[in-house]
Amino acid sequence: MADTSTNGRVRIPRDKADDYTRDQAGARRAFVREHTGTELSHVGQYSVDPATLAGNVENFLGVAQVPIGLAGPLRINGEHASGDFYIPLATTEGTLVASYNRGMRLLSESGGVRTTVVEEHMQRAPVFVLSDALEAREFGAWVDEHCDDIRSAAEATTRSGKLSYIGQYSIGPLRYLRLNYTTGDAAGQNMTGKATLAACEWIQANHPSHPRYILSGNIDTDKKHSRINMLLTRGNRVVAEATLDKGLLKRLMGVDTETLFWARQIQMAGSFLVGSANNGAHAANGLTAMFIATGQDVANVSEAHAAISYTQLLPNGDYYWSITLPALIVASYGGGTGLATQRECLEMLGCYGSGNVHKFAEICAAVVLAGETSLSSAVLAGDWVSSHDQLGRNRP
Amino acid sequence: MADTSTNGRVRIPRDKADDYTRDQAGARRAFVREHTGTELSHVGQYSVDPATLAGNVENFLGVAQVPIGLAGPLRINGEHASGDFYIPLATTEGTLVASYNRGMRLLSESGGVRTTVVEEHMQRAPVFVLSDALEAREFGAWVDEHCDDIRSAAEATTRSGKLSYIGQYSIGPLRYLRLNYTTGDAAGQNMTGKATLAACEWIQANHPSHPRYILSGNIDTDKKHSRINMLLTRGNRVVAEATLDKGLLKRLMGVDTETLFWARQIQMAGSFLVGSANNGAHAANGLTAMFIATGQDVANVSEAHAAISYTQLLPNGDYYWSITLPALIVASYGGGTGLATQRECLEMLGCYGSGNVHKFAEICAAVVLAGETSLSSAVLAGDWVSSHDQLGRNRP
Amino acid sequence: MADTSTNGRVRIPRDKADDYTRDQAGARRAFVREHTGTELSHVGQYSVDPATLAGNVENFLGVAQVPIGLAGPLRINGEHASGDFYIPLATTEGTLVASYNRGMRLLSESGGVRTTVVEEHMQRAPVFVLSDALEAREFGAWVDEHCDDIRSAAEATTRSGKLSYIGQYSIGPLRYLRLNYTTGDAAGQNMTGKATLAACEWIQANHPSHPRYILSGNIDTDKKHSRINMLLTRGNRVVAEATLDKGLLKRLMGVDTETLFWARQIQMAGSFLVGSANNGAHAANGLTAMFIATGQDVANVSEAHAAISYTQLLPNGDYYWSITLPALIVASYGGGTGLATQRECLEMLGCYGSGNVHKFAEICAAVVLAGETSLSSAVLAGDWVSSHDQLGRNRP
Amino acid sequence: MADTSTNGRVRIPRDKADDYTRDQAGARRAFVREHTGTELSHVGQYSVDPATLAGNVENFLGVAQVPIGLAGPLRINGEHASGDFYIPLATTEGTLVASYNRGMRLLSESGGVRTTVVEEHMQRAPVFVLSDALEAREFGAWVDEHCDDIRSAAEATTRSGKLSYIGQYSIGPLRYLRLNYTTGDAAGQNMTGKATLAACEWIQANHPSHPRYILSGNIDTDKKHSRINMLLTRGNRVVAEATLDKGLLKRLMGVDTETLFWARQIQMAGSFLVGSANNGAHAANGLTAMFIATGQDVANVSEAHAAISYTQLLPNGDYYWSITLPALIVASYGGGTGLATQRECLEMLGCYGSGNVHKFAEICAAVVLAGETSLSSAVLAGDWVSSHDQLGRNRP
Description:
By secondary structure, chain A is α+β, with helices and mostly antiparallel strands. Chain A has helices spanning 22-36, 96-109, 133-145, 147-155, 189-206, 227-232, 246-253, 257-274, 283-294, 301-304, 340-348, 357-387; strands at 60-78, 82-90, 113-124, 127-129, 162-171, 174-182, 212-214, 235-244, 308-313, 319-328. Strand 1 of chain A pairs antiparallel with strand 1 (60-78) of chain B, so a sheet runs across the interface.
């Protein structure tokens, strides 16, 4: 079972030959009990086969059981997702499922959500260090000229990754390259990392000055919200949009579309003032719950939660509502998508496996829009109730 | 049991009298099978008692089993966390546990991580709508004058929430108030929401013009990264810092501290250029894995992943490394922290229950720093290997 | 006259005893002619007395003649500015004066602009370097406790500067202090620099660890747009607001208020997407022209041009329009305000000298609003003309 | 002569036939005297011929006399600017000229400044409004396919403007196009506006759905700092860089390069924290003074002051310093460059007229770098003096 110390450092039990077994997981739980006094009884109860976890986790000792609530149906009229969907939401936050469910009903009864994957780019962004800005500029021109060779080097490392274009950004003697790929059904961070390493090695070997590089100059911007993500997309740029009937909104949500639009002006001004990553309500909630349920890399919520809401009050009083997610990083294959419970959740959406990533992206965006309508209305319905008597709307 | 359509809308089975049972969960899985054809076999296997899930999820049908890997020990010399810790990381991303583990070894062998909770603020930010900017300014002065009354109204709704101060921000006729609270061992979003509603109602009732308000003007900025979070803190502002021995870093990580610092300049420039929420490497990875394992509101990763790295190369060649997390929203009590597996994971850290939230926050920050050292070094060691021969550091 | 080289370096003529004379200016123009071949004929023609320029410029050789156009009247109903104003705009950009003039007519005929100085803060932001984050936090508490002493030290250096509050911001072992002052009729950068130096010296001498500091940690953020400026104000936070009659707007500007509001949604979404400092049209144009004319520190346009537009379409079809300038740094006294032409331009606004800075700030904001209405309408009137036939506004 | 009221509105005197005369200027000054009581004596003294001001200003009544100080020589080793330059700085801020002059000496004695124009893009950014996101995406593809036709339409309106590429950015049903041009020796805002109008009209006429558009969707982002400017350049992206001798810096500036670099880490962290447009010191100061002197559109300082400083401490103790200006919008021809004093100032730099815009851009960047070195050193030299005894640099 081999725990413990080399050089005085206690070591977590690990079997180099066969570490993904129930016994090894048990040994690690025993180790935890020994060192912390905590019995991991529930953590040790799982149905996933440890042998399937190689490549997903190291030092496996059990599972977190995250409760899943069911919401839906949600009617989606997308390019890839079409029909009524039931959504698994893994969360420990009370009311989340109920609130999204309410929004799904509104959207479905309004005729459903239109969804569109507008574009798709996954990146790795190395930086090359030249001797000065002039050489850096000329290096950039050289990269443009050798784009086909660079693409060949990159794509030789992957079956599904395709290099779309190389963005270039200059600071002093530095030339940041941002290699943009399509990555099939995978989120693609690893795939693009490997391909970009090959691209960089080719560049370094072939450029006359054999410039030094760092594989990431931190403008990728992996696992970090950024303005470049919002502008230039990371993962999928997906739009969900719906036109909400004025009467239906009033009946289901208790608010007028005029009030929603009035409040929208105030919330947009606030979002702009404080430098928010999202001028809407709470995209992170729905995305996180879907990501946990379906085996996405949940840390991507840091990037995926960015959003731009754009709405218009139509002359007939109906409400056009769109949300654009510029950095929705998702997969229908690879990563955690194939694990026991995660795969089932993708399957119930008809999204497991090859060819389904855009369908899944569209469903994510539709779910987000449902949550926006529900929370935004709830905030105002409360206000309405408490302040209905002084509502003189001729005052700004 | 399985009711269905009203007005043609299919309805998810729900028992208003007693919905948190294995039977009801099973009924919903059957409903999913009927409507999607998917058998939720693994999702239906769990040890958590459904009766404990009221307040955490609606329409419960089973669980996501998220594998947990073990990392550590991590030596922490904090105010609240002190000693060697073993860290549960729930993730499906291969190498994550191994990489953090490597960083923990480096930090521990360097003498450990110092951790400090610098300040603590949880907010709800309503907006009051006045007739013009002048009235809004005077309203703001009135709020300042009546701060004690407003505090009384807010604090009457909660045992553990305390109103620290009210920030005020003006746009046109709008006065955004940002009520800052300490919230004990809870993350506090709900607590502050309820308290702030009471505060707003008091204000509206007592201010001579009985101004209209919206409970959130979107500058809270709940579940959204923002610049105001970075400046003014949301949740805990926590710092982890360590001084890394030059020789040790070279031996364990394969990089020189000079190279790390050289690269740091480049990565900071890149982060600044692209408007990143974090000028470090990948705080979101470690935080997400800890959040899932310990029952945090994982959607808070959208805010919590923001970070500022600050480092110095010391005259003796050692490397001072700090990371500041300005929006680490965590709880040791309430929310999902008391669920079956989640509680066990908090217990193994000695962080379950009352009085432990700052200890947990410190551990989170220390884990993040471990991940920073590991990934940053890995990026450069690769570079070093491939390019060791042309490393003329007299070139910028 | 023209001394020259020491150590081979050619030196610009300079008379240490009496350098602010027409002769010395002429000597320098001769020096320019000698070294560049350029005859500075027009530059040498000025009415300002060189003797008045000490403290405003070094190595004076003549003037830039910047043409001033006249706009107005602009009716302002402010706290400090009240009545009809004629505005001097120094610019070389054709149509600027005409466009602002058009906006002034619209605003005046709509009843005038309400203006309000909401708050006023000028800053200098030193950073203290402590040994770690814990010491930095405790240092921060010490600063709070000794605020009165620090204020005394700071205010001893100035007659008109008053220390309002000290904001504190932590990164690792660093404690950035942002000392906020009111500065009377001066913009106050120099005054606050001197006062803050005294404050820092007092802190360093009296704090037990005598911590090292840098007088600016770059969060002031002098001569640089920043998010902290938008949130926490730099100089004056000023609002200009007006309610525009629907019929008048259509008659004078050729656009419907509905169209303006529809377009506003699109422009706000765009501004948010690209991370703009200003979600309005072109505040910088009017401010720059006024700043040059009136002897402001024109480099402050970098900060002053930030703005938040907030509008509402009222139920009766009229249009409420506000613009909030969070960083309007201006002076009515000191700096360049007393120079020959600059003083005349301030005088024609009734803003020269003591007690007039808020009046001037209000006029600036009103001028900005005039420019917003004019340009925003022009953009749309063009569109309207070219596309009037396909304008189906039921489409988003 | 002063005509006046129509509909009760007092009107500024204006002669439609011949308004650009000394008499008309005098009439307007008389009008000002009549309405404000202010005698514009100095404003009325100028040598510029009013007849040359058509196209630069309306309602001309005189000039602002802005004092010019002389700095230099500044040695520049650029692609376009090469040699020793004397710089005219129009300012009313004391010490500005002296401080820049000091930096110029340092840079010149260090061997001079390398300058590089990295890229050049001027934009106008219309937005097209489609019926939904899917149609917007397809519209985008159509634009790509018809890029040559669009270019032809745009370029037919201008001799010197060339359309480089069309960036596309999606929000909901909106397709923002950002047309990037090179504009010869002009700043190009008007040129690109006219060309883009033609492009839009062509698109609207030829696209099957004849979509509505707005000529600016506010992502240009004219006269406003923005993140998109920093990333994708507006005007010229120019780098100035120098390697500063350790001993020389100590002798001239009184600081060690190690101290400069230590402080740089702190200032970069601060700049990142507060969301600054510029992580350096005060680019706006030098740029504004040059812009006023040389007839640039000074309002562009709002955009031009953005900068990214990137530095490295070299192993031998010398200091590599670069500054990158991503949005330096300048002209050597057109606008105010041909006016009396402005042209002389451009001529003394050898930058007046066709073919000189990149030379002028390089000089601007070099001047900025001079100011950075001077102010950054001054801040620290002060600190050094006051705190020289406790400077234990082994503490972070």
